[in-house]
Amino acid sequence: MKRIVFCDFDGTITQAETFVAMLREFTPVLSERLLPEIYAKRLTLRDGVRKFIQSIPSARYGDIIEFTRSQPIRPGLLELLDFLESREIPFVVISGGLMGMVESVLNPLRHRIYAIHAMEVDTREQFLQVHSAYESETEIVAKAQIMAKYNADQSIAIGDSITDLNLALAAEVVFARPPLTRYLEERNKAFIPWSDFFEVQDYLRDHVLGGSFEQSLRTH
User: Fold this and answer.
1) pLDDT tens digits along 124-135
2) Which pTM value belongs to this model?
3) What domains sit in the chain, N to C, each tagged with a CATH number?
4) Burial class of residue 179, CB neighbours in 10 A (0-12, 13-18, 19+)
5) Going by C-beta distance under 8 Å and a sequence separation of 6 or more, which residues neighbour residue 170?
6) What is the pLDDT of residue 214?
7) What's the pLDDT at 1?
């Protein structure tokens, strides 16, 4: 595949940081203590997220899915999917959140998405257990590792947070929203700022698919 778009879910496809909102709703005490540690990179995503999820009783998993189901999608996603399909460019969702949460929102569009990667949940024990086929030393869902397995000639990443940092650093083209922009600036990684998927589509059409995106790439 010549080009593939790899897109985050929480705060990227959804307008709000759905996973973080869920953690604050279902694990308020831990969230108050651990989320700042994750954002400051003093606690790895793998260790922090596992502490969060495995503190939630399995009986509440249905409540988590319902909490997520009504989350609004960021404008322009349908039009971006139309645009990519017309050019036979796969759209792959890679989420650091729970598969059930992602599917509850994207189920109506599932046939238009090439693949979805996220944490799998086991509800058979008293508390939720999570696992992933692509776990690394710092992430339960190692996004860059997943992207690498597709072996795209040109990887295009879309994200918004620290959970997308490794993905963005490994991609050729990066669309970033805050706070991901700050982490990329610290590492001198070029990116394209964006607010909705209409802007992503316009930039891809005008600069990436039409020729040399390097000339128009902006670093902020």
Assistant:
1) 999 999 999 999
2) 0.90
3) 3-18+70-215 (3.40.50.1000)
4) middle
5) 144, 147, 148, 155, 157
6) 41
7) 65
